[in-house]
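If your schedule permits, I should be very grateful for your opinion on a structural question. What I wish to show you is a protein chain and, alongside it, a tokenised description of its three-dimensional fold. Would you kindly read the sequence against the tokens and tell me how you understand this chain to fold? Here, with my thanks, is the record as I have it:

===
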Amino acid sequence: MLRFMPVGDSQTIGSAGEHTWRYRLWQHLRETYGGPFAVVGPRETLYDKATDAPTSYEYADPDFPRGHLAGWGEGWLHMAPLIGDAVREHRADVLLVALGLIDLGFYTNAEQTAENVRSFVAQARAARPRVRMVILPVIPNVRAEQDPPFAAQVTLFNELLAKAVADLDEPRSPLLLASPPAAYDINFDTYDGTHPNASGEHKIAGAFAEAMWQGWGIGHTYAV
């Protein structure tokens, strides 16, 4: 059985009642993978805006497997120390990682964030030497559109991320850099300029799906 672990920030954990891109990708894999798989992780809740905490179990589909390692306001800085235990405990085979926006927005510059990427990879591999990872660059968001210095940091980080993935990729534990979601438009694919709506969820899920299909032959091309 192939075990997928989504890792991310608010775009990944999602809010009460949302589907999330995790759900869209799960649906896609159910239809295309052709073998047993699981979605795993140490956390199960969604973020609840009413309580300002990750306390909700209000999933739009009760059959959706809830496991993940995602948190509202968490980034590479926060996940690097956690990933080893999470991978070890849940025996994750494939990490689906969407991080960086929070780091650059509140905690670290592009170079520091890239160092945390490298630490994350090292910790995951120490726990499970053959773990695979698909990593999504920071995608378009309203702050990058309105804040040129921040946009420059996002651009630089995405360049450093691509270099880190190329440097760290190895046959035993391969890394894939997913392409940014095709035609992602914050005016149509988010509900607030940052967090994906249904259209955005499909596009993010599609980015992960296409990377796995093209890189490893897992699943198939993504169809909405």
In short: The chain has one domain: 2-216. The radius of gyration is 16 Å. The chain has a mean pLDDT of 96.
